[in-house]
Write a structure and sequence with these properties.
The protein is mostly helical. Helix 3 crosses helix 5, helix 11 crosses helix 13 and helix 13 runs antiparallel to helix 14.
């Protein structure tokens, strides 16, 4: 049984319709509706097998679900260099936010040497989802003990009309406000972000339970 056969056997047409609504721009027939817990079970069962290796080599995939599964495989790889090589091959085929945001390699938590240079390259990419991925990695792995104020410049330097880039930028700065308020709030107070990202950041921050009521009231005064 091939990986695709496994996915076809686990398809859920009702869930496929739901996923298609959440992921505009992708043809409805590309959704099988396989639920994420089932995809994780498939990945775990096939991890390290020749079948998995063949699946990862075969790009592009036909189905959205195959791309989600591919992202899960990459996120669970143990080798740092293996992950980087797999991302290099896969990122050009990522064509939606859901697949992009599935990519959160666990190995990056423990192995950050040189990673920030890769993040900078991803964020600077002209490919929408490579850029979004880079911002997502910056948000996931560089807002805590590895944070440096200079990293806040990276998403701010991106000039784009792409919704999925700008939404990730707003998500990044809203999270940065929650985790690194003193360093981040000048970006809002000084109008360092584009108007749309600025206002969306404030909206998302004011919806966050990690932002104090006093901080939320201050942010409200900064809307543009």
């Amino acid at each position: 049984m091939t990986v695709r056969d496994r996915l076809l056997a686990a398809r859920d047409t009702k869930n496929a319709a739901f996923q298609a609504k959440l992921t505009p721009g992708i043809a409805k027939e590309k959704f099988l509706g396989v639920r994420v817990p089932e995809l994780r079970k498939i990945e775990k069962a096939l991890r390290g097998t020749a079948e998995a290796e063949e699946f990862l080599r075969t790009l592009p995939h036909k189905y959205y679900d195959e791309n989600i599964l591919h992202g899960i495989f990459i996120s669970n790889m143990k080798g740092y260099d293996e992950v980087l090589a797999a991302l290099e091959k896969f990122l050009p085929y990522v064509d939606n936010w859901a697949v992009c945001d599935t990519l959160r390699p666990a190995v990056f938590k423990e192995r950050k040497d040189g990673l920030i240079e890769k993040v900078k390259a991803w964020i600077a990419s002209e490919e929408v989802y490579a850029c979004r991925f880079g911002m997502g990695i910056l948000m996931a792995y560089f807002l805590d003990e590895d944070f440096l104020p200079e990293y806040l410049e990276l998403p701010a330097a991106v000039e784009s009309e792409e919704y999925y880039i700008n939404m990730m930028a707003a998500w990044y700065y809203a999270t940065a406000l929650a985790k690194q308020w003193e360093a981040t709030v000048p970006y809002i107070g000084q109008g360092r972000l584009s108007p749309w990202v600025h206002n969306k950041t404030i909206q998302k921050a004011r919806e966050s339970y990690r932002i104090t009521d006093e901080q939320k009231e201050y942010l409200k005064t900064l809307k543009r």
